Amino acid sequence: MYLCFAMMFYGGFLVSKLNGIKKEALWLTYGKKCAYTGNPIEFSDVTVDHIIPKSRFNNDLKREYSLPDNFKVDGIENLLPVSEYHNKQKGNVLFDKGAILYFLNIARKNIDKYNEIYNNLLKNYKRRDNFEILRSFLKSEPTGSEIAELRKLLQSISSDTVNLSGELRFADSIITDVSKSDIDTLLNSPVLPRGEELELINEQGDRITVKTCMEYTNANAEGYYASNNWGIKFSGLFERQFTILNGLKNAKPPKISYMENIGLFSLDKLPAAFYPVIGEEDYSSYSSYADAVNKGVFKIQSLGKHEIAINCGSDCGDDTYFHREGHTLIEMFRSDITGDGVEDMMIMGHYSSGGSLSFSYATVITYNPETCMFVRCY
Fold first, then answer.
1. What are the φ/ψ torsions at residue 188 (nearest 5 degrees)?
2. How far apart are the first and last CA of the chain?
3. Domain extents for the chain?
């Protein structure tokens, strides 16, 4: 009975949630930016706009714009993620024909990308809801045989697949949940877009190119490294993907957690020393991110449940300076990654100097209840 109910819920996924996933998929498809202005927007500010307003759509317009027979005014081919402000400004205005065709072409080119992201999100949301349903049944009083079957199902799903709070981007895919059986395949998948390769060099001047995380890791072990800012930027991407995937491979359910009500949003528990040190700057004298913010050295650009973005500068009166250098941290997943039974957090970081230097990385942190601070594991 319980499994039947769970499967019925699976098939009858709420329309409101589907609409929310549709909006999130559009937002991710266009790089978390407003399609009309190109400016970054928070998900809370995203609205879905019809390029051709529904109130203006008719057969005459369809013929005038030579739209295909299968064109749908509510289809992805006619939808864009737009900030709430610009959506209200546009209203039901019909752009001139050139602009309409331009945006319809953009939407059409992004259909495949959208479908991939949407399907990944849908799979994640369905799995999460089933987790909650199954867990609620385990807390109730089903029969012995039912609870044994439910436990087996829940453990098999939970142990094999990890839902990521952020994204892992590869050349031909965006990964938001990872099955342990897929990790080796991902480690040997091309990382950079358009089949690009990363060139590395060693002390003898020998050069090689790599495409996958495993190729990069093996080359790095043999003494090859990136020799310019472009190479440093993308070598960090290879290292980041490898660290996250390797962490997923080692991940186990924790026996104890000290992080039930805290996260990256707990700025008073994040050591300022987590901020990358470039050149002579050193933030270790500040007790935490919150301390550095209060003293005008760090400036919060965005703060969410799983992600923070910080700008920094020595002169707190110069906003332009603050916008030049930035550090973003994203929580990817929580698990016992180090094997000590305590819950850890895998985080993905990105640093930009505001100039040509930028790099990505991943690291594992955990919470020390004695110091009431996060500490870096590796």
1. -110, 20
2. 46
3. 31-109, 171-250, 267-376
